[in-house]
Write a structure and sequence with these properties.
This protein is an alpha/beta fold. It is 40% helix and 17% strand. It contains 19 helices and 15 strands. The strands form 3 sheets. A 10-stranded mixed sheet has the order 2-1-3-12-11-4-5-10-8-9, with helices on both faces. A 3-stranded parallel sheet has the order 14-13-15, sandwiched between helices. The chain has a two-stranded antiparallel sheet with strand order 6-7. Helix 10 links the parallel strand 8 and strand 9. Helix 14 packs across helix 15 and helix 18 crosses helix 19.
């Protein structure tokens, strides 16, 4: 019998309580043995008590298996001081982000951001970006003005800009990497790759610029790689990875980076998947874990019933996997893909008009056994003669009627010309549906490029001498 897992739920600020309330019924729906206890965290507790994470919340976190964090508001020092209760102002109380406090207190060194083609536009991809949480450029060694230590001033004093600066203010930041930090991050990342069926691990760095610290990282990477046969490893520049994440996201498996590079690439990953409303994350470490949507508290949207609950639901899925409820966890991204494919009950950030609750209800309805959704289809017609108007396109109408009659929901139609690049680009844009029907240009003519374009879009082999094989055609 599966033991009951204890979870601390911290709704936090802004839209946090709304998205939590909207998605947590999924736990009952999926019948997972989880016991929830709500705790206090966030800006209101900072204002009233001078601490965004009261001691009672730490006591709660010490008794649970993991934590679900919804959203946190943070503000600069001046604003933070101004919003404190009058009796607390002027006492030197410093605001420290609850996120930073959680990571430091529980040693949460690995931040995992799944990047998956949930919307179904283009070729499928599924990889994870794993960011180091405790060192790198975010280790806290950041100085300016009189605070710059004398040793650092001496170290940078010979730089041409410092000499020309003639004693005016300067700032110095240090990147910290340690064998301990690198070793535990890489071991976690290899284990994650193996558990999730990824065969490639990409280490992201700038070894051509940050030569010494990158050399240490490379050394540790090679040591750990030897213990994980079957997983290929590559070292890539951060800027190259950024380009490939946009153009070829399907090439990645697990992408691992130090703190700052990982932070920047995480933001790019959020854009690749379709925005903050589809971006969950998990933080893992030596003594605990917590899971959250990436979108933050968005205080201007609080109470407006318009926040996208998908990221919160996906974070719940990551939490369930971590707790050992793998089958239930798989139902959640499947439900998100299903709702997005239908194009209904979408919130404003995805181009729809549904509210938080309406969108969440659609997501919950798509979860669990017996929740199979109507399959979707797209129709593509090919030919310059269709674009010029020389030939009337009646095939799209006929195909749509046939597909509808066979139980498909036709979500898109398109027409493209005969050039290979046009065919390839249009096919890629229509991938992600359960069925793509391509009509026209598939006859016996020797100059036809449609099948070649389809093969190129799918990334499968194609030879001009082979007219049969992995591709089916209609003419």
């Amino acid at each position: 019998m599966t033991s009951v897992k204890k979870v601390a739920v911290l709704p936090g600020d802004g839209i946090g309580p709304e998205v939590v309330d909207a998605v947590l019924p999924v736990l009952d729906l999926l019948q997972v043995p989880v016991e929830l206890t709500y705790g206090d965290i966030g800006w209101e507790y900072w204002r009233r008590e001078g601490d965004p994470v009261p001691e009672r919340t730490w006591e709660l976190l010490d008794t649970v298996d993991t934590c679900l964090l919804a959203a946190i508001t943070s503000k600069p020092p001046r604003e933070a001081e101004a919003e404190l209760a009058g009796s607390l102002q002027g006492q030197g109380i410093r605001y420290v982000s609850p996120v930073i406090q959680l990571r430091q207190r529980f040693g949460l060194f690995a931040n995992v951001r799944p990047v998956e083609n949930l919307q179904g536009h283009g070729r499928p991809y599924r990889f994870a970006l794993i960011r180091e949480n405790t060192e790198g450029m975010y280790a806290g060694f950041d100085y300016t003005g009189d605070v710059v230590p004398a040793a650092l001033r001496s170290m940078v004093g010979g730089h041409a800009n410092v000499v020309a600066n003639a004693g005016q203010d300067l700032g110095v930041s240090l990147r910290l990497v340690t064998r301990l930090g690198l070793d535990r991050l890489l071991r976690f990342s290899f284990a994650y790759a193996r558990a999730h069926g990824h065969s490639l691990l990409t280490w992201v760095d700038k070894p051509n610029v940050l030569r010494s610290s990158s050399a240490l990282a490379r050394e540790v990477l090679e040591e750990v790689t030897a213990e994980y046969p079957g997983i290929a490893v590559e070292v890539q520049n951060a800027n190259a990875v950024a380009m490939w994440m946009v153009e070829q996201p399907e090439r990645f498996g697990v992408v691992v980076a130090e703190n700052m590079f990982g932070d920047v690439l995480s933001g790019l990953g959020e854009g690749v998947v379709g925005g903050l409303g589809l971006a969950p994350s998990g933080n893992y470490g030596q003594h605990g874990s917590y899971f959250e949507p990436v979108h933050g508290s968005a205080p201007h949207l609080a109470g407006a019933d318009c926040a996208n609950p998908s990221a919160m639901l996906l974070a719940v899925g990551m939490m369930l996997e971590h707790l050992g409820f793998s089958d239930a966890a798989l139902e959640i991204p499947k439900a998100v893909r299903s709702v997005l494919a239908r194009g209904e009950s979408l919130t404003f950030d995805l181009g729809g008009g549904a509210g938080t609750r309406q969108s969440a209800d659609a997501l919950l309805a798509a979860c669990g056994p017996g929740s199979a959704q109507q399959p979707t289809a797209a129709v593509l017609t090919v030919g310059d003669e269709l674009l010029s108007g020389a030939v009337e396109d009646t095939n799209t109408t006929q195909a749509a009627r046939l597909l509808t009659g066979h139980g498909f929901r036709v979500r898109a139609t398109a027409t493209t010309g005969d050039p290979l690049a046009d065919i390839t680009r249009t096919v890629r844009g229509l991938l992600g549906h359960d069925l793509l029907v391509v009509i026209g240009g598939l006859g016996p003519t020797s100059d036809d490029r449609t099948r070649e374009g389809v093969a190129q879009a799918l990334g499968v082999p194609w030879s001009t001498t082979r007219r049969r094989g992995r591709l089916c055609s209609t003419g």
